[in-house]
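hey so i finaly got around to running the thing on UDP-N-acetylglucosamine:LPS N-acetylglucosamine transferase from Nostocoides australiense Ben110. pasting the sequence first so u can double check i didnt mess up the copy paste, my clipboard has been acting weird all day
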Amino acid sequence: MTSAGSPNPAPRRQPPGAERILLMSSNGAGMGHLTRLLAYAAHLPAEVEPYVLSLSQAVPVVAQFGYRYEYLPSHGALGMTSALWQPLFQERLIETVGRVRPRVVVFDGTHPYRGIDAAREVHPGVRWVWSRRGMWKPGLNGDQLAKSAWFDEVIEPGDMAAEADKGASATAPAYRVGPVTLTDREDLLPRAEARAALGLPAEGRIGLISLGAGNINDTSRDIGAAAAALRAAGCAVAVTDVAIAESAHASDVHLVRAYPLARCYAAFDLVVAATGYNSFHEVLRLGVPAILIPNAGTSLDDQAARATYAAQRGWALAPEAGGLDDAVRTMLSYGADMAAAAQHADPGNGARAAAERLLAVAVGDVEGGRV
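ok and heres what it spat out for the 3d tokens, dont ask me to read them lol
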């Protein structure tokens, strides 16, 4: 097992007296909500200061971008019920908005917390935006759409699989932009530089497994099956989870720890990834040959619909159980063509349009914006 990190993006410096936008992320699985907000922040002008308030324990990564941040523990992190936690959240949010004094508060999540409405009443001069990704599982979460009334604007980051979106938010009013990723094509490191940054061998094929936690030695499960398929095809294996790497006890398993890892995707010959919003759009937008394995355990995100749609369009493979060996061989032979097809279908990064919309909200110029 080997491990290494990658160079951090250059920190951002704010001018004195900059206007602020407060970016608040919910505590979803992974880092998707926080990463999407950082994508918006990257496209804000220098005279606007992003300030992050997050329920994610991963929020310290924000410091490498030069932004100030605060951690607001979720009810799960505190071991509390939602009912007991909600007044604490409300009090903290009201205090933070009063102290930070943003022009706009942006909440990224699929379930706006009770307390946002109260904070809006206490701070009537602040504008509020809901960053609400789509692809909800059909029949779920529709009651949350009524909370759009708490916000001055709803921005929906686009989805390359939007044609397959059958969820409640698909037809709800929103200002829709292109798919949003923090990393763009021009941010990619060249292959040799990316491998050096991650401490990976300069030669040979390497496949990245990005499926969350699991046991690499259990070939009956996705991670173990993916590792076995990569090895059978002559590929070394890279993983992002420390426990997985430590359990491997093998020199051809490499731990890669970097944020954002997508900057180093050229280091890999293919990626075996789940189909959450960020990982799905990073591999497709950045031209990475990808095998997609949806996480069936998500509460709301319709990862299966994303994976199926991408496979139908010829952008990636989404093999059935037991089909990973064939999928890896196919991807090593034809993956570049499939990745190119995905990039051809990419409408471009929607982060800039989202940031521009936030600026419009800040000055009240959002008449007739939702479609």
